[in-house]
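Hey, I'm writing a tutorial for new members on how sequence and structure tokens pair up, and I'd like a real worked example in the thread rather than a made-up one. If someone can provide the structure for the chain below, I'll link this post from the tutorial.
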Amino acid sequence: MELPQTINTGEGFQELKIIENGKVVERVNLQKGGIYSISAWVKLRNEKERAVRITLRGKNVRYVDGGQVIAKKGCWSLLKGGFIVNVSAPVDIFFKSDDSAAAEINIQNVRLQRFNKTQWRLQQDQVIEKIRKSKVRFQVSFQNKSTVEGSLISIKQIRPSFLLGCAMNYRILESDSYREWFVSRFRLTSFTNEMKWYTTEEVRGQENYTLADAMMQLAEENKVLVKGHTVLWDDKKWQPIWVKSITDSDDLKNVTLNRMNSVMKRYKGRLIGWDVINENLHYSYYEDMLGKNASAMIYSLASKIDPDIPLFINEYNTVEYAKEGVGSPINVKNKMEEIVSYPGNMNIKGGIGAQAHFVPAQPNLPYMRSALDTLGSLGFPVWLTEVDMPKCPDQVKYMEEVLREAYSHPAVQGIILYAGPEMSGFNKLTLADNDFNNTEAGDLIDKLLQEWQQEPAEIPVEYHEHNDEEQSRIIGFSPEVSLLHGHYTVTVTNPSMKNFSTTFSLEVTTETGQLQVVQLELDV
């Protein structure tokens, strides 16, 4: 999925000359703090296909990776990525594959574009206006002219379409303060460990959903949406202890089927999505035990149990680490394609979860953008599912950059923070101290929650002497108003008329287009 067209806010493309296959001719002078977006067309001479990555090398800059693509023989592939460097230095840009000599790689049309932070933010804001908002105009039909004059339309958003959520753990059941802190802010969550198999069936045949059920009830009572995490985990380390001891594949298959039916049927109709097999690119427990098609077969069963919600892949190092091989955006995309192309799986509602556990350093925003492009290319919803970063002096600044980058990408439909108050044990991204006073990170999240929710508005109805002659009614119009997508209540009143008030619901979505004309007929 490509970003919508925006005004070019960068400093213009620089076309780079190539000195030899695998290396760019021109030594490029990069400026400290500059955001560099790069693209190139790549193909292989001999190999059928290989991952080719782009790398910087220079004095004080050693092997900084900026993205990768699966290159093919005889077919050009577009590599997109970028860099943010922490020093000003001349560098060489290389295109490399760990398994192929540089001479086997052909590259063309290498383009580099520099942005400063202000320009990058401006581009994000332009995209947000296009993908997160629509213009709305109200056309109101009144019985007579007196009811038009002075009438007002009040608009209040009940729930935004895009949700910034936060994980929760069992400690929320033990603390009224934690519960009040959470439900006063968030409308989206996932549970850290309470739905996982090793929690709900610690002993074979003895299921215990006490914690998960109580947290589910808490969420539903407070109108907090829940994304299920996780049906299964492909890492043997995180299986229930008794599962690890299973050596017979048929036995494992039976207990896996029991697990899936148990947890998915229990919460069917109550979740907005499921992580089906956590981290099944980095690990392969089920494939090793049940065969190479285990993932596809598990997703097939999951879809039969609950066909109405997205079924997610959930991986790490996908948007946060450009040098990643296993969990790269290309591999995640290919894994999802492999699952939905398995016989009988073509109608599965897929989803792509990028955990987004960032290291405590400057995030590579242009790489993150290109990674989201790749993840979104299948058309499935993309979520950032476990966003955090260890504490560091610039943690709040870096977190804001990451969250704004995600929010400004059209493929991203939700964000869940792996965070909470200090007493809940979230010691990386801590949002409140033990007295539930905001940390600086907490202030940031509150600011974004407010910014990404539409402020209530009151707009006048303008009388344009337009008569509906057939029905002898007067038509009033409102000015156009730009609204964030979401669910609204709309109330039409006239302060000079005591009993004049009508309320209705309104949904503003991408599907309604850039201008939505809402027609109302009032019989007052």
